[in-house]
Amino acid sequence: MKTEMPLSKPIRRIIKQTEEMLDTEISLLRQPEADPGGTLVDIYTYEMEKNINVIIFPAQYVGLLKDFIIAKHCTHLLIKGAAHKKGKYLVCSYDEDSVSRGMRQIYIDTLKDEAKKAEKDKLPVNKLIQMLFILYNHFNEDINEIPWNAIVNASVYHRMSKIRKTQLYHIMKESKNDMDEMVEQEKIIPRRYFVLNKAMFYARDMFLAKTLPADELMPVLNIPQMKKFNHLEVKEMLTHRWTHTAWYQSKVFGDTMLEIVDKHLDKVEWNAPPTLDHYYELYRLGVNLTNHLTSYMSMKDWFVWDTPKHLLQAHEMKGVYEKKALKKIFGDLISDSEEGT
Amino acid sequence: MTTKEVVEILKKGRAYAQRTKYKEAMAYYNKALSLDPKYPESWYLRASVLIDTGKPQEALADCERALALNQNYADAWSKKALALFNLERFEDAVLAATRASTLNGNDAMAWYIKGVCLDELGRSDEAQEAYGKSLELEIILDMDAERRKIRKH
Question: How many domains does chain B contain in total?
Fold first, then answer.
């Protein structure tokens, strides 16, 4: 790594360690419009000409926020690299059949929800059709993100005590944004998917709240959106209606998902020597956790484990997959103008 | 050449520097310096590019020129601290960063460099204090950036 940016000692250490362990190079790039969580463009996911991985972060991150983004992405890179070196690095991808299965399930659930709605609240058919793949794709992105986010954050927390306050700020901010996701569409999308989406974030945040000292994170107190989860049982007793809200159901599902996360990650030796074996073990746990979560959400056959290249190609083909799935679901009932997004 | 014209030239140079087009940026800064060598910002901006292109010694010299013209130029002190850090002159970098943060208490970078250098010198407690201040300011900067983004959308 060659950079003129000032970097604190533990960050220089983790960059050096990552480069040496994976026999690769890391380059840092500051960009005004970068994603707040930074971006990792790595050789295990993308076909790169040179053996260089790039960590991109927002221009306003000049100190410890930048350090945290680097630590987070180096840890993720170590997990990906270890998987690549010791076995095979796979991600949750999709193909024509899996898209079809996922979209069909979403369609069935949508119909159930729509049947309960008053006529004036029903979703126009074209919107309903468009929503199927959007939701499917959303869950693909989330399932490729959330389990790893929990693992990476726990690892950074245990290995880098000096940036814990920064990590705390970042997690709170990220969590707030994640909780906002889909809220505007709450009335449109099927309840089941709104609930599962929120439940995944809830489980991740609660796991991190347990991993990071409780007095520091406390998501149900510190994140405005999560206050909805606070003292739900009492509210449940007070009002029967509350038990029918999506937020209550998110907590119920989220608590079960938290148990799943705990089951997989509770026994991890986060402070074990940072070897390739250790990071490969984290990768393995991440895969198992992902499988368990998709199974719990009845999405096991929605996705296929395949190479990152397969996923990139699937993204390129998504328009085609969507059209074919719609044909399978609706047959000749669907006209060309109504086909997908 | 009026200051206004130099400012315009520097603005162009800065636009190139932001896009990491350093060669073009340097050409504008050199032009500004040849027109008015007594304008401290030109030295400061050229120092920034010199640091980004891995020339801390030359950057340090430019910072000194900027500071000779204006001893209270906070950004130039901050840049000097960065140049000294890159030259591994940690004691001197702490002094320059302290001066920068005294002149401009809101300079997150100055506090961060101070923290990093104090850490290098084994002064952990003082480093934590500087890091804490740097984080506080960075969070304010970040929240401002978020607000601007929301307004833009």
Answer: 1
